[in-house]
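[step 3/7] inverse_fold.run input=structure_tokens len=596
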């Protein structure tokens, strides 16, 4: 009986218009489980909500159930059977989540509660409309504004602290000492992203170990400010987390977060931006939709227009020497880098990309330049991006650029004796879309849910943002299993692996997503489940695999391997759903070529 009383007190029951109005008048964040009378509320999440309420112990966090049949505002949910959760702050809808995904629900609640506290102090609000409540189209993600009078920094709760379940505890400590969390996102970095983020440490002996560690499992990325707007949050945050060396932190600042949650040199629990320039770059890296609000003024209608994207290319010679300087100019001009990669282009790819230039006298020099080393490709975002990027570049002709716009990028980063300019920009919005698709196509990878894990992972795949373009369940013949794992034919475990793969049905999936190969490998985790549990505790293998043989899932090691295995299992793939021809491009940082 006591248990039932706890449950009732945790979630207010809303079954009338009057109670609905009372809920919307509640101060703080209210999480509403919307249900239909015939099926009742989602009981599976009650224990999760109670855990969150107990851990956060925040009077501004409320939970409720609402019967859609009795409330006119919820009529759009009367014919839906999936669990639906609405998040209300100050009487306004600020978030919607469909499905009882516990980790995602917890993340959303913590993030929106932080946002609601900020709203109550500063009067900022970002509404989210949902088709269940209105006939209007859903509003695209809005730009979040950081007040101009507040300094900000990027903090990262690293994979080691996340794996030990310390996120909520750390978040509470952060807020208890007076920091504000302006944004919060859980994210598993790919190796390429980790390399880009820590490129300023590339010369350090520990760089490769750092990249492997930061891509080993999910991190929690925070944008942090101070409740006292004038305080230097970067210095305050670095003092709060403590020295990078854990032993030094324990000696000098035993109450610091690294002293409390760090365990080793790299596994020191948290990250903090080194200075204001680094903070701005890190903010753009993780949160491209954040902008600093103009002091004491409201944005005009033009500023509310949605951001556009354009493609920027930095040719190999300049990318080698001046990458950081150019990226700094890009950020200073108000752009955010939405996508970034280094690629080695073949002659065929350059001819395809610049097909309209092949008859020009300068084309041989352009071809030679574009194939001389890795090209840095960027998808840049801001309002009127195409126009602003071309203005920043300056004239295509270097002589004109020097005369007319000596401060332009093409003038500033020209090469002596080189007739062609060293940076590219899309000419129109339509060109930008086509060119971004050329360099950043959706990849496809083959995923196999092995016989020991049938039925476990399909929902996890979809929750990871992948699109399943083709799927089939099959029992591998011995001949096909030997062909599938032919790379391992000389290994002592080959026969045992083949026997295991033939013993029952497997689920074969073609997964589509930008950077699909690396994203799926990150989601799987290391081949050895023991290693996975240490390095990537939230990965599929850490949670579901039994041993190194029965390790639950398989993923392709690179794009070519994915194409080969997809062809083996599915035959010729429809070009409309198959891998784009531009996926031939290989990242210059791609080096992992193992099969598991």
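[step 3/7] decode complete -> sequence:
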């Amino acid at each position: 009986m006591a248990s039932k009383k706890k449950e009732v007190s945790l979630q207010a029951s809303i079954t009338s218009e009057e109670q609905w109005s009372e809920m919307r008048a509640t101060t703080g964040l209210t999480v509403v489980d919307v249900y239909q009378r015939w099926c009742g509320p989602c009981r599976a999440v009650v224990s999760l909500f109670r855990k969150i309420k107990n851990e956060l112990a925040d009077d501004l966090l409320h939970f409720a159930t609402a019967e859609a049949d009795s409330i006119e505002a919820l009529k759009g949910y009367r014919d839906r059977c999936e669990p639906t959760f609405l998040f209300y702050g100050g009487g306004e809808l600020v978030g919607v989540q469909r499905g009882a995904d516990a980790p995602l629900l917890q993340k959303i609640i913590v993030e929106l509660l932080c946002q609601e506290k900020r709203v109550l102090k500063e009067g900022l609000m970002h509404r989210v409309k949902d088709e269940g409540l209105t006939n209007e189209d859903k509003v695209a993600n809005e730009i979040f504004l950081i007040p101009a009078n507040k300094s900000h920094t990027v903090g990262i709760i690293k994979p080691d602290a996340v794996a030990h379940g310390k996120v909520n505890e750390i978040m509470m400590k952060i807020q208890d000492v007076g920091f504000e969390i302006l944004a919060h996102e859980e994210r598993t970095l790919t190796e390429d992203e980790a390399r880009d983020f820590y490129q300023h440490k590339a010369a350090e002996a520990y760089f490769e170990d750092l990249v492997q560690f930061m891509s080993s499992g999910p991190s929690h990325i925070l944008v942090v400010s101070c409740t006292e707007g004038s305080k230097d949050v970067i210095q305050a945050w670095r003092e709060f987390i403590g020295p990078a060396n854990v032993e030094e932190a324990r000696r000098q600042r035993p109450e610091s977060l690294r002293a409390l949650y760090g365990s080793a040199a790299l596994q020191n629990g948290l990250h903090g931006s080194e200075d204001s320039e680094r903070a701005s770059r890190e903010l753009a890296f993780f949160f491209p939709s954040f902008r600093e609000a103009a002091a004491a003024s409201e944005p005009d209608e033009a500023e509310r227009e949605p951001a556009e994207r354009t493609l920027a290319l930095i040719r190999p010679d300049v990318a080698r020497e001046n990458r950081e300087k150019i990226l700094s100019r890009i950020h200073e001009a108000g752009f955010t880098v939405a996508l970034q990669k280094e690629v080695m282009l073949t002659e065929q790819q350059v001819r395809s990309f610049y097909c309209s230039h092949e008859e020009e006298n300068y084309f041989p020099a352009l071809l030679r330049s574009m194939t001389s080393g890795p090209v840095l490709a960027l998808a840049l975002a801001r309002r009127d991006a195409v126009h602003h990027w071309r203005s920043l570049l300056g004239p295509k002709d270097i002589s004109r650029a020097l005369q007319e716009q000596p401060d332009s990028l093409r003038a500033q980063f020209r090469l002596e004796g080189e007739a062609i300019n060293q940076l590219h920009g899309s000419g129109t919005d339509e060109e930008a879309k086509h060119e971004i698709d050329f360099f950043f196509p959706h990849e496809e990878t083959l995923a196999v849910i092995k016989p020991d894990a049938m039925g476990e992972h399909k929902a996890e795949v979809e929750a990871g943002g992948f699109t399943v373009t083709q799927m089939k369940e099959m029992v591998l013949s011995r001949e096909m299993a030997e062909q599938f794992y032919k790379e391992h034919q000389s290994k002592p475990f080959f026969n045992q692996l083949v026997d295991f793969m033939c013993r029952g049905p497997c689920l074969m999936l073609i997964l589509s997503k930008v950077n699909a190969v690396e994203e799926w490998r990150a989601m799987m985790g290391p081949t050895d489940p023991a290693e996975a549990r240490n390095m990537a505790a939230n990965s599929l293998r850490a949670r579901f695999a039994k041993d190194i043989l029965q390790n639950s899932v398989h993923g392709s090691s690179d794009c070519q391997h994915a194409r080969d295995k997809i062809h083996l299992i599915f035959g010729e793939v429809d070009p409309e759903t198959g891998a784009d021809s531009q996926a031939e491009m290989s990242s210059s940082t791609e080096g992992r070529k193992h099969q598991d």
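[step 4/7] annotate
The mean pLDDT is 80.
The chain has 26 helices and 20 strands.
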